Fold:
Amino acid sequence: MLLWTVFAALTLVAVIVVLWPLLQRSRVAPSRQDFDLAIYKDQLREVERDLERGVIGESEAKAARTEIYRKIIHLGDNEAGAKAPGIKSVGFNRAVGVGVFALIFGAAFGSYAIIGAPGLPGKPFAERISDKNKNPSLDELVARVEVHLRKNPGDARGWAIIAPSYMRLGRYNDAANALQQVMRLEEKPDPDVLSSYGEALVMANRGAVGEDAVKAFKEAVRLNPRQATPQYYLGLAELQAGRKDAAVAYWVKMLKNAPRNAPWRSQIEADIRKAGGTPPAAPAPAAGKAASDDGVPDIGQMIANLASRLEEDGNNLDGWLMLARSYMVQKKNSDARSALDKAAARFKTDAAALEKINAARKAYGFETQGAASLDEAAGNGIPDIGKMVTGLAARLEKDGKDLKGWLMLARSYMVQKRSSDAKAALDKAAGHFKTDAKALEKIRAARKSLGL
Structure:
């Protein structure tokens, strides 16, 4: 309300300043009679001056005086009180002032009522600034980092942070320059930085892979032969140069080194076909490296892989004990008993090993029901998966910005037949990453793969 009062007062002051001359009482214009009388008096003085200078004689002066006096006598016959032209009445001026005042106020407040927001609740300026700082735009964040870097040009981390933001804003030359600074300041060349630098050069060059970009990509591949991005652009450079076979060779090698579930696999396969090549078949899941489509290790597959390795080489006591505990977590008691039996057969001449195996049997209730808990077996050096899951859940409650952790937690709950907890974990993950489209896509994929 106070703000509206101030606005109204300021508007009123402005209007008064403009209209003050119109609101003043106009000076009454002299009548025609007074005007003519002043002229005649001046003529009389002129006659006297001419007489003194000898320009005219006494008789001529007398005649002139007589004529002027005659005119003065007849002034009353003229229209009395006639006003000089161009002077308007006080009433008219006031009417104009009131009209202008109403027009200004009506236009100002009427326009605000139509296109403004008079019902919006007030908010202190400091609070508005605080809100803006809480949710700054990408441009504002970049500007802040730029200020920091002007003062601290040797901050490699600052250059590394601002480069991806430049890419998102389409400022590719600035991104390339920032990555150049990172490479200059870092002691060792980083294949990821080299790859990003080459990509920025390509974007700045409107998709053409130039010589500097090729050098950067080749160095990145030398440092990390399995890196996909530089191989793609090196293939693109060959294709732009008209060497389709060389392009296909790069992309085939890229696919052979890529994960089976790489999101860009289908696009590269299409590029290979377009260049006249044949894409390689997608690799089968490698033993011991099981992973779900979301990149999180598949605990069930890991247990199967462990069992397979132990069947080939059973001289790993900790492996057998871990396998038994894992089966117990999965409620596969018979498999756990079988694993311990096989371990006992492998280590039948090792008293210390047999003691640990028997302790595990007792802990799982295979010898005497209820004699010990699972925690008693922890002294055998076997990781307690149940405690690991509980610990992971506690950590994520404190810091939920670990997407892979949430996916791992949900999968672990499913292994433990705790589907409701798995669903709750994914719901919490979605809450933490509600503005991250890629993260939400992985969470949806995990729901689908886990049947949630």
